[in-house]
Amino acid sequence: MGKINTILFDCDNTLVLSEELAFEGCADLINEISAAKGVPLEQPFTGETLLTEFVGQNFRGMMKSLQERYQFSLSADELDGYVRREEDVVIDKIKAKGRACEGVDAELAKLAASGKYHMAVVSSSALRRVQASIDRVGQAKYFGTDVFSAATSLPTPTSKPDPAIYLHAMKTLDKQPAECVAVEDSKSGTLSGTRAGIKVIGYVGPYKVDEQDEMVKVLTEAGAVVVMRHWSEFDSCLAKIESGSV
C-alpha cells in the first residue's frame, strides 16, 4: 500500500454547496434551449428535477445526454455559446449565495496544519465556476493553482464519470493513484475517481436525510470504499484507507 500524501476534492456539494444554485440556473437555460429546438419535454425542468437526474455531470455532459434522449442537435458554436451563458448565470448565483459544506472548513484547516497532504480540487465544472466557489467561501488558500476542471483543463472538454480529469490531475501533480484519496458526492464522480484507480471516500451530507441511505448504496456500488455522512467522519474514513482496511 503506497503512502497517501494527496487528497483530491470534488467541489460542488463536496466542498461548496453549489449544486442546487447551479441547477436552478441551468434548468432555466435548458428549458429555453428545448423551446428553441422544439423538444417535447413532458414538463419544464426545475432545478430539483435536473439535479435528481444529472447530479455530478457538467452542463456539456447534460446537453449531450439530452440531445441523445430527445434526438436533437446543437452545433459546436451553439453549444459553446450556451456553455458560456450557463457559466455566467451559475457564477452569479454562487457569488451571491454559495456556502461551504457543513464541517468541511475545519477538516481543510486540520489537513493543511498537519503538513502531510497535498490538496487539490478535481471537478467536472468549468474552472471559473470552481474558482468562484472556493473564493466565495474562503477555501482557495488551500489549493493554490491546483484546481482541475474536466470542462476547462483538458485538451478536449469532458465530464465525470470519464476518469480523464483525475488522470490529468495526477499527471500534473506527479502522483500515482496509490498516493491519492478522492472525496466525491455523486455516482459519476465516484466512478471517475475509481476508474482512475483512486480510492474514493463517498460523501452524502448534502442529500436530504431520507435520501442518504440510498445514496450510500449508490456511491458504494460506484466504487466508494467508505462513505461519510458528515465531514466530522473524514479523519476516520481516511484512517481506514491509510491502514489498508478498505
Automatic annotation (TrEMBL):
InterPro entries: CbbY-like (IPR044999), HAD-like_sf (IPR036412), HAD-SF_hydro_IA (IPR006439), HAD_sf (IPR023214), PGP-like_dom2 (IPR023198). Pfam families: Hydrolase. One of its GO terms (molecular function) is phosphatase activity. PANTHER family: CBBY-LIKE PROTEIN (PTHR42896:SF2), XYLULOSE-1,5-BISPHOSPHATE (XUBP) PHOSPHATASE (PTHR42896). NCBIfam families: HAD-SF-IA-v3. This is HAD-like domain-containing protein.
